[in-house]
Every structure is written in C-alpha cells, then in structure tokens.
Design a protein that fits this description.
Elements: E1 2-10, H1 13-29, E2 34-40, E3 44-47, E4 64-66, E5 73-76, E6 80-86, H2 96-112, E7 119-121, E8 124-131, E9 143-155, E10 158-166, E11 186-187, H3 199-213
Parallel strand pairs: 1-2, 3-4, 9-11
Antiparallel strand pairs: 2-6, 3-5, 6-10, 7-8, 8-9, 9-10
Helix pairs in contact: 2-3
Length: 217
C-alpha cells in the first residue's frame, strides 16, 4: 500500500529532508507504508552529490542546500510540483537503474495526459520537451527544454527524494544555476508551453498514472 500525502503551502527543505529520512527508516523497518509526498518548496537551490561549484552562478540569490541525493544543481520553488518518492526498491526488484527509468516513465505518462510529449536523452538527466518554435540546436535538431528533474537517494533499499515537474514556476529563478550541469538547453513549464494547467491537475495525473508504471507485486 502506498500512502499519498499532499502538503499545502511551502515546506522548509531541511524539515522535508528530516521527515523523509525518518519515514525511509520506518519503511525499511516495516513499520510504515510506502509514501508519495507532494509539496512545494520556497525558492532554493539544492546541490546533489555530482554538483560542480562553477554551476552555481549566483550563490547569493536563494538559499543553497547541500544534499546527498544523486545529481547536480537543481532549483525548487513555488509553482513546481515536487513528488518525493519513498518506495521500497528492495521489494521492487533491487534494480536502481530500472527504478529511475520508472520515475522517468511516470513523468512522461503524466505529461501525456496533457498531450505533452516528454523525452529522455542519453547523457541528460530528467525529462525534456521539444521546442520547434525556437531556433534549432547547432546540429540542426529541434531545440529542447527541460520540464522535469529527477534525483534520488537510497537507504536500506528505500528511496527518497524523487522528482519535480515545472507547472508554473518563475523560470527566471533557474538563472542562478546551470540546471543539472547542462548549459546548452533551457527550462520550461506546462504553463510556459501554453497549457492552463493547475497544481491540482498535475496531482490528479500523477495519481492516475502511478499504478501504470509502479505495479504492485
């Protein structure tokens, strides 16, 4: 059984980390159910275990939090749906790569409910959308913007951290970092793509598509 929790307002980042660690330990001990936690953070940057100092281009703009999740620098803030995935990867095959692929597939299925095609690109973390209305890339292929970020950590085969989908954040807030270390592509959101999508709409889509990807044994 997976418990779904939705927290209104803005949740302090360190408070969220502490809660996740406690819940992950309880899941590993068998004293709590798996959990998907939906929330928003105040504007902030997080540095994953692969973060490079040069990618923090405006260190004084927002608080910066060192974190032990995988990945590089990421922005979180209002208008972005964060979905923390506290799931027992041990009981779901013990295949970390397949688990991350499932997170990607979950985002893609969620975007598809809004008729947005999300893509995965080799060597680029996260989920991307093509922007044919923008100038093409240097190699002639269509421009692409990032719409979702993914970064997890495991403890005793229980995952925490998770993913974020840009619904309607201030895209200018990403300017203080090189998002996920990728400078040659931009960032977008559902509203930036011209879709009148609300946070509640995204939450419904996440719940509807979850079981399609994370089938229970």
């Amino acid at each position: 059984m997976v418990e779904w929790i939705t927290t209104p307002g803005l949740t302090d980042y360190r408070t969220a980390e502490a809660w996740m660690e406690e819940r992950a330990n309880a899941i590993a001990a068998g004293t709590a159910d798996e959990c998907i936690w939906l929330l928003e953070h105040p504007p902030l940057y997080t540095a994953g275990t692969s973060a490079k100092a040069a990618d923090l281009t405006d260190p004084n703009r927002f608080p910066v939090y060192e974190t032990r999740r995988g990945g590089q620098y990421t922005y979180h803030g209002p208008g972005q749906r964060v979905a923390y995935t506290l799931l027992d990867v041990g009981k779901r095959g013990r295949d970390v790569r397949a688990f991350v692929q499932n997170l990607e597939a979950w985002v893609i299925a969620t975007l598809d409910t809004f008729n947005v095609r999300g893509d995965i690109r080799e060597g680029r973390v996260g989920v991307w959308v093509q922007r044919p209305e923008k100038p093409p890339q240097a190699d002639g292929t269509p421009a692409e913007d990032k719409i979702a970020a993914i970064g997890i950590r495991l403890r005793k085969w229980v995952s925490f951290h998770g993913l974020s989908i840009n619904v309607e954040p201030d895209l200018g807030h990403f300017d203080g970092i090189v998002p996920c270390g990728i400078a040659e592509h931009g960032v977008t959101s559902l509203v930036d793509l011209g879709l009148p999508v609300t946070m509640g709409d995204v939450d419904v889509a996440l719940r509807q598509t979850f079981d399609q990807v994370f089938a229970q044994d």
